[in-house]
Amino acid sequence: MNGIRPDELDDRLEDDDEPFVLDVRPAEAYESDAIDGSHNLPVYGALRAGDESALRDRLDEIPRDREVVTVCKMGIVAKRATSVLKEEGYDASTLAGGMSGWNGYRAGSIGYKLRSLWWRIR
Known about the structure:
It holds the Pfam family Rhodanese. The protein is α/β, with parallel strands linked by helices. The chain has a single domain, classed as 3-Layer(aba) Sandwich (Oxidized Rhodanese, domain 1), CATH 3.40.250.10. The protein has seven helices and five strands; from the N terminus they run E-H-E-H-E-H-H-E-H-E-H-H. It has helices at about 5-10, 25-30, 45-50, 55, 75-85, 100-105, 110-120, and strands at about 5, 20-25, 40, 70, 90-95. Strands 1-5-4-2-3 form a five-stranded parallel beta sheet. The longest helix has 12 residues, at about 75-85.
């Protein structure tokens, strides 16, 4: 499964060819804390329960001509979304650590720095 680290995504968001950031968390979570420029498709509960149809039914809302980076709270459910998107022919990856990882990166937390080191050596 393809993944992208928060620092890599942050760099990519500055590019002319920035990815489409798809946040699958519930609308309330997205509204309280989200990556700037991301798009919310609140299918978290369905995906967590194993129901991929909620995402598949809304594929027309996701561009096919851009890389898609999926986001959830910790990255676990987003991996399922990434898998569905790849099955459907999308160029997709998952934000490592989800919003928790993103917020740790933005805050420069020691926890993020240790996780980032682990991601790099794996």
